[in-house]
């Protein structure tokens, strides 16, 4: 075991299987480091396993650690919900100017914008742990975003910061207790630092491709798990259906009121489970609705 450690001056390092070096810290430094990583400026109040991985990525180590603890550019298309601010005249002008295809998700179907909703859910969880007064959430939002972006995401096995900039962010704890990376970069000249940064940006495509592969495998696992418990539902043109009344709709009258309204007529069946409905008098709805929000109506 002693062969995995070596001393450089007064600092002890541990060798990793991939020939990397982790700086060893004592008990007081470890406690301070845990506090900074877990609840500091870059902390997202993550669980023990994620906390340990984040510390390892910062190149620190102590014997009881496991126990204690895109490129910038114009998108081709974007998917948003049906909010008024996202369907305004200004939004249409921007999309036309930059030739962006703007699509709206199905009404009352947050799963259509799943990646964004999942990120928002995680950021809300972080904010709940950081704020004491709900009115001050906007003041802690930058810290919550920093913690989210410097934490490894399970779906891609990398941090969002790494995938954008090609290197890991320098967290505040690394400045107070210099890691090996900070010590090495402090000794580099400006020319050497620029050359190293260029090398990192050169290799960023490979890191992103690896993240894409991890993301595809993760989505396949999630899809298989979802299909095991889902039941397929098919609708045909001309069928009568009822539409669910959601709590935020004007038609919602409380817990003891009916949960469904209608009947309506199915006018068109779209791909992906969306339907175009119409009133019984033939008035067609302008926007589609997901089949999860309707059920068959039998006369």
TrEMBL record:
Signal peptide: none annotated. This is Integrase catalytic domain-containing protein. Residues 73-168 form the Integrase catalytic domain. GO terms for biological process: DNA integration.
